[in-house]
Amino acid sequence: MMEFILSHVEKGVMTLTLNRPERLNSFNDEMHAQLAESLKQAERDDTIRCLLITGAGRGFCAGQDLNDRNVDPTGPAPDLGMSVERFYNPLVRRLAKLPKPVICAVNGVAAGAGATLALGCDIVIAARSAKIRHGV
Fold it and tell me: What is the CB neighbour count within 10 angstroms for residue 102?
């Protein structure tokens, strides 16, 4: 199994790195599952006092990987609203309820769901290269 979320704890800070740099760290189903598991760990572990989320490579997160959906090209368009309800709303709610500060370090692009993830954190630190875009 690929490690789409790299986790490292040092001096009470858990760093989570979105790790799909070849796809600008865009989300797929497995990445969602790994991030959810990492957030559970952060919630339960009292030695973790702060959470830092960042992205590997040249971008923070380009949002949902639209190529990850197994869609019949002759069929109807995928229901992206389902992705929002199933994955992103619960993710942002979980971040908001986390009883520890969550810091997001944005490098490069944070688009769509990536922008939602970043803006759902308590503090956003953006590199000069950061470009945050939400919506079309």
Answer: 22
61 sits in the region (left: phi over 0; alpha: psi -120 to 50; else beta) called beta
Q: Provide the residue type at 19 as one letter.
A: N
The pTM is what?
0.90
Look-up: residue for tokens 């572990």?
Answer: 45
Domains of the chain: 5-133 (3.90.226.10)
Whole-number Å distance between alpha carbons of 64 and 81: 12
Q: Cα(131)–Cα(112) distance, rounded to whole angstroms? A: 11
Q: Which amino acid is at 59?
A: G
* Run of H or E including 37: helix 29-44
Supply angle C-alpha 85, 91, 97, rounded to 5: 120
- Let me know: does 130 contact 106? Beta carbons within 8 Å: yes
Q: Cα angle at 57 between 53 and 59, to 5 degrees?
A: 70
What are the tens digits of pLDDT across the range 7-22?
999 999 999 999 999 9
Residues 45/75, Cβ–Cβ less than 8 Å: no
